[in-house]
Amino acid sequence: VFPNPGTSEINWTSPVEDIEVCIYSTTGVLISRTFESVILTDDWPAGIYVLSPTKTGSPSGPPVLWVKLEN
Predict the structure, then answer these.
(1) 3-state DSSP assignment of residue 70
(2) Cβ–Cβ contacts within 10 Å for residue 22, how many?
(3) Between vectors from CA 11 to CA 63 and to CA 30, what angle results, nearest 5°?
């Protein structure tokens, strides 16, 4: 996951195909779900987010923290 911290986008890669990333706020609210490797975050407030990779609804690796800085 890069850049971390970041402001306007998250870039991520996985060696496993068909991985969906679920992104949660620190309060547990689902912010986004995507299969895209670049996630635009311009409209998100600054804070800490949890990226959770999943495959067919099951965890596919450890969650990653990402810090969003103010634009």
Answers:
(1) coil
(2) 17
(3) 45
Residue type, 47: G
Q: Which two tokens stand for residue 34?
A: 């995507």
Using CA atoms, how far apart are residues 8 and 38, in angstroms rounded to an integer? 10
Bridge partners (DSSP) of residue 68 are 6, 47
DSSP 3-69: SSSBSSEEE---SSSS-EEEEEETTS-EEEEE--SEEE-TTSPSEEEEEEEEETTEE-S--EEEEEP
Give the number of C-alpha atoms closer than 13 A to the C-alpha of residue 57, restricted to the C-beta side. Answer: 0
50: pLDDT strictly greater than 90: yes
Residue 44 has pLDDT above 90, yes or no: yes
